[in-house]
């Protein structure tokens, strides 16, 4: 409505990503209610008057991210990522920022 430059970046792995990540890391991969049938986020954003992009490959990443960042109005970027990709750093439940977990390749 107000055409403010809100930017939404969706890391789309067709799962409830953070819930699945917890199930991977803390619950021995016992999955429950995490695989999703997502809407078409590009069409959804466009239906509300926002510009939308989809990134499917690593090769598209530099140009599409530049377009995403340079756009002045509201924009949604649906970045398709690997189904089993995790997001780091993360803070486990009940822990403080000093206890955050980093990607396994970056540990020690």
CATH homologous superfamily descriptor = Thiamin diphosphate (ThDP)-binding fold, Pyr/PP domains
**H/E order of the elements?**
EHHEHE
The strand order across the widest sheet is: 1-3-2
Low-confidence stretches: none
How much β-strand is present in the residues?
Answer: 15-25%
- Any idea of the CATH topology? Rossmann fold
| Largest sheet descriptor | 3 strands, parallel
CATH architecture annotation: 3-Layer(aba) Sandwich
Domains counted in the coordinates: how many?
Answer: 1
Total number of beta strands: 3
Give the proportion of residues in helices.
25-40%
Structural class: alpha/beta
Radius of gyration: 16 Å
Distance between the termini: 48 Å
Count helical runs.
3
Name the CATH class: Alpha Beta
Question: Which key features would you list for this structure?
Answer:
alpha/beta; 16% strand; Rossmann fold; 108 residues; 3 strands; 3 helices; three-stranded parallel beta sheet; 25% helix
Question: What does this protein look like?
Answer:
This protein has 108 residues and is an alpha/beta fold. It has one domain: Thiamin diphosphate (ThDP)-binding fold, Pyr/PP domains (Rossmann fold). It has helices spanning 17-26, 41-47, 61-70; strands spanning 7-12, 51-55, 75-80. Strands 1-3-2 form a three-stranded parallel beta sheet, with helices on both faces. The N and C termini lie far apart (48 Å). 10% of the residues are buried.
List the helices and strands and how they pair.
Blueprint: E1 7-12, H1 17-26, H2 41-47, E2 51-55, H3 61-70, E3 75-80
Parallel strand pairs: 1-3, 2-3
């Amino acid at each position: 409505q107000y055409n403010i430059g809100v930017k939404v970046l969706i890391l789309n792995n067709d799962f409830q990503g953070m819930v699945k990540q917890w199930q991977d890391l803390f619950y021995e991969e016992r999955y429950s209610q995490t695989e999703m049938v997502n809407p078409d986020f590009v069409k959804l954003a466009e239906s509300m008057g926002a510009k939308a992009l989809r990134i499917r490959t690593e090769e598209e990443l530099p140009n599409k991210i530049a377009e995403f960042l340079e756009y002045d109005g509201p924009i949604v970027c649906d970045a398709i990522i690997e189904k089993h990709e995790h997001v780091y750093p993360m803070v486990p439940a009940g822990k403080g920022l000093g206890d955050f977990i980093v990607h396994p390749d970056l540990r020690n």
